[in-house]
Amino acid sequence: MSFHGPGTSKVMSELLQPDPAGLKRAAEKIQSGGLIAFPTETVYGLAADASNDVAVARIFSAKGRPSFNPLIIHVPTVAIAEKYVVFSEIARQLADSFWPGALTLVLPRTADCAISKLASAGLDTLAIRIPGHRLALQFLAECDRPLAAPSANPSGRISPTTAQHVIDGLGDAISGVLDGGACPVGVESTVVGFENNSPVLLRPGGVTKEALEAAVGEVLLHSDNGTISSPGMLLSHYAPACPVRLNATDKKPGEMFLGFGREQDKLSDINLSEAGDLTEATAKLFAAFHMLDEMQVQAIAVGPIPEIGLGVAINDRLRRAAAPRN
Asked: Rg for the chain (alpha carbons), in Å?
């Protein structure tokens, strides 16, 4: 079926059901060079055949994404990942511990890597992961292609955690959306690169630094020198249409308050978790931003959120949402 976005008469892309017929149709669109949004455990990704230069270019065009910003490659198995990247011993330990799951590894491309250079922004490394989502893995198997898949939203805007978010943001710019319901994690994957064989946290996400270190020992923090070496490193990113004020303890005229925990509940127009549960808050963050965008609010005030565990990923996204716009 097709659908129409709010306030528009354009014919939009196809909404595909998560059944064998829907998966087959979505895979056929990928194989013919089209763009399909699909659910993962983190957010909805905008997929194209990663070995097709033209299809990958369509991702950048649809999102309005800078071509210097690399894409994450999604594959269904480690054996397939080995066709495209070279694993060190510590990278393999991380893959064994967290794949399938919300971890992306930035690794050297193999000598005969078939992935488009555009997908890695011309770098000699590739960001790659195996998603921890049943429908995503079924889709990858049906496509029989590596999929380049950044978040399925206009570049710099809020990442989508439902099919409707994709429709509202990209509607007529893509071939279709595979509807798998809400994404359970709700924030993008953690990205880990390597310097002198030591793991480096390039982007906090669905796997915490503490969990990484429990698996492999010390994980270094990325020192920001302005270099874009992995996805999700742009300063202004994940942003609502209106200004965002962080660590707010009051609500100014015209602001809507996004709170966390019972202490902030009286101020809150939306509470990410009354119980102060960081997992619940992570899952709700982008959905809350989408809701406030739809309400066309003038400004958003966000209450303090602890900088521990998943709170590191939440605060990272909040700082990027509040950063000056280009």
From this structure: 19
Whether residue 143 sits in one domain with residue 34: yes
Residue 79 CA to residue 12 CA, distance in Å, equals: 37
Nearest by Cα to 232 from 37, 41, 40, 42: 42
Residue 207 maps to a domain: no
Q: What is the pTM of this model?
A: 0.82
Domains in the chain, number: 2
227-261 pLDDT, tens digit each: 545 555 555 556 788 999 999 999 999 999 999 99
Residue 292, domain extent: 244-322
Domain end position, chosen among 169, 184, 199: 184
Confidence of residue 123 (pLDDT cuts 50, 70, 90): confident
The CA-atom distances, in angstroms, between 320 and each of 78, 172, 236, 300, 316 are: 32, 27, 5, 14, 6
Q: Is residue 115 part of a domain?
A: yes
The verdict on residue 211 lying in a domain is no
pLDDT of residue 239: 74
Q: What is the mean pLDDT of the chain?
A: 89
Q: Does residue 127 contact residue 231 with C-beta atoms inside 8 Å?
A: yes
| CATH at 80 | 3.90.870.10
Q: Is 216 left (phi over 0), alpha (psi -120 to 50) or beta?
A: alpha
